[in-house]
């Protein structure tokens, strides 16, 4: 998250056009959606025209963050490309913005990943962005090898992907590469796709470690292990993993990439009715997919479910498909739904293959549709018998309130793409521009969300009256955060603020996202105003 004025290398505010700065602040107050995105894009273009590179950077960093938070991940590629071009033209632009230098590297990785997930971005663009990342972190860095491996695999070049995989696994741990546990899942998915099921399960061990520090685990690892366990004779382990992972992923907004494995497991484990139930429950997600790749895989898995259901005499069963855009709601026979899903999967596979110049994804879909159960139905344990640790994260649907929890809060920050830490007391701390923001869960049951912002700039002890005057003016003109002055033992003045929200009746993820957005954006504005003081 970026915004407001940032101090230059000499401690002064980097020059920005005041009209654009005001427009940027106003854009932060717009509701999430296309209007806000369009305004940020307009500000960036206007800053380019006026020769104000810092305002252009602010707008484009904010634009990327908005796309990552609210969908359309593939749309980050263009603003990231423009950020890169601006920095390449003027390398000193980020001298006074070290946090943004790190952020640009992370966005370069995310842009390459976004290109893998959609055929709307050319592979040449993905390779150009990856080359730019390699120049910044080193050609031998783990994140570079990881992305080259995944790009090669995506295009169906398994030998090249395996060579890069070996370099990736041999590289030193790389903070630029992302969460280590989630990377273990990535490795397992690649190995399983190459037919190395036992190697895939071995790769999953770090992510299945009970002590792993990742709010998305172990459920993502369990989903990735479903088919390898089933194919290697560990059907009981697969059945338990299915129930535990689906308990979370059935309602998690970002879980579409893991649902294809759930559908295929149910179909191939001999549970066509359960597979149809899951397909019916999750079908609305296909109209709002995480990305095109996960939509293709979900549709292909759904087509397999329908084909096996029809073969087992369930062809008369109907599945409700909600209306979307100009498609009316309908109760479809299994065969009809399967035809529709296969057409969707085939269309997307054709788009990927046309972009990549291969037939890899069409072949993947054909292979999936040829799969059949190989034995008796796998017994599923009773749901209440499946381990459900007290600290297992549960994320409700976007609209469903649930008790406030640390896992909910960190999931919101992960979706935003923020960098943060959680201390031993459960306090979440992150830095956004010149604002350090701490999130705490207070109250007897942790039902109160408390956000405290501390401005990075401190004032001398002799400016106490001025500091009080600033805070009084802020509290008079702004609702958030509530500003105050804290005097350190040595006399130095810290300007801070807080926002407290009572969520005793629960909070939906979408609502919590709004509250976090507001706390961060107002905290950044507050810290920027402190930095702008004479």
Automatic annotation (TrEMBL):
It comes from the Bacteria. This is YbjN domain-containing protein. Residues 372-400 are annotated as: Disordered. InterPro entries: Put_sensory_transdc_reg_YbjN.
């Amino acid at each position: 998250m970026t915004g407001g004025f940032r101090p230059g290398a000499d401690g002064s505010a980097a020059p920005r056009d005041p009209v654009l700065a005001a427009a940027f602040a106003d854009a932060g107050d717009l509701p999430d959606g296309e209007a806000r995105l369009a305004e940020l894009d307009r500000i960036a273009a206007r800053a380019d025209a006026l020769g104000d590179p810092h305002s252009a950077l602010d707008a484009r960093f904010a634009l990327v963050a908005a796309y990552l938070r609210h969908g359309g991940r593939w749309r980050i590629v263009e603003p990231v490309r423009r950020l890169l071009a601006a920095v390449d033209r003027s390398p000193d632009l980020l001298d006074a913005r070290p946090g943004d230098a790190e952020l640009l590297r992370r966005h370069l990785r995310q842009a390459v990943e976004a290109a893998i997930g959609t055929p709307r971005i050319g592979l040449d663009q993905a390779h150009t962005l990856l080359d730019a990342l390699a120049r910044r972190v080193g050609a031998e860095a783990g994140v570079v090898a990881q992305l080259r491996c995944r790009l090669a695999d995506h295009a169906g070049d398994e030998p090249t992907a395996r060579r890069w995989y070996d370099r990736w696994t041999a590289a030193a741990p790389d903070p630029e590469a992302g969460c280590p546990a989630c990377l273990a899942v990535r490795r397992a998915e690649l190995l399983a796709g190459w037919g190395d099921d036992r190697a895939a399960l071995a790769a999953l061990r770090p992510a299945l470690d009970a002590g792993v520090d990742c709010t998305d685990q172990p459920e993502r690892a369990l989903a990735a292990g479903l088919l390898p366990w089933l194919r290697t004779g560990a059907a009981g382990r697969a059945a338990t993993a299915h129930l535990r992972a689906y308990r979370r992923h059935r309602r998690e907004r970002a879980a579409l990439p893991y649902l294809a494995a759930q559908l295929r497991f149910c179909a191939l484990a001999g549970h066509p009715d359960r597979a149809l139930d899951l397909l019916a429950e999750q079908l609305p997600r296909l109209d709002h997919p995480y990305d095109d790749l996960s939509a293709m895989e979900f549709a292909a898995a759904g087509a397999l479910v329908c084909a096996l259901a029809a073969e087992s005499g369930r062809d008369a069963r109907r599945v409700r498909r909600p209306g979307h855009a100009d498609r009316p709601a309908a109760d479809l026979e299994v065969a009809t739904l399967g035809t529709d899903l296969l057409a969707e999967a085939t269309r997307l596979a054709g788009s990927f293959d046309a972009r990549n110049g291969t037939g890899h994804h069409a072949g993947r879909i054909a292979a999936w549709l040829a799969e059949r159960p190989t034995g008796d139905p796998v017994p599923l344990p009773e749901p209440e018998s499946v381990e459900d640790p007290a600290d297992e994260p549960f994320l409700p649907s976007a609209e469903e309130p649930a008790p406030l929890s640390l896992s909910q809060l960190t999931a919101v920050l992960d979706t935003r793409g923020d960098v943060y830490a959680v201390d031993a007391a459960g306090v979440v701390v992150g830095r956004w521009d010149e604002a350090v923001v701490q999130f705490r869960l207070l109250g007897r049951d942790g039902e109160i969300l408390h956000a405290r912002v501390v401005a990075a700039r401190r004032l001398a002890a002799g400016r106490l009256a001025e500091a009080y005057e600033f805070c009084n003016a802020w509290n008079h003109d702004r609702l958030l955060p509530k500003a105050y002055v804290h005097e350190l033992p040595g006399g130095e003045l810290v300007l801070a603020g807080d926002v407290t929200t009572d969520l005793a009746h629960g909070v939906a993820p979408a609502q919590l996202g709004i509250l976090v957005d507001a706390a961060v954006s107002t905290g950044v504005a507050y810290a920027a105003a402190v930095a702008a003081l004479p």
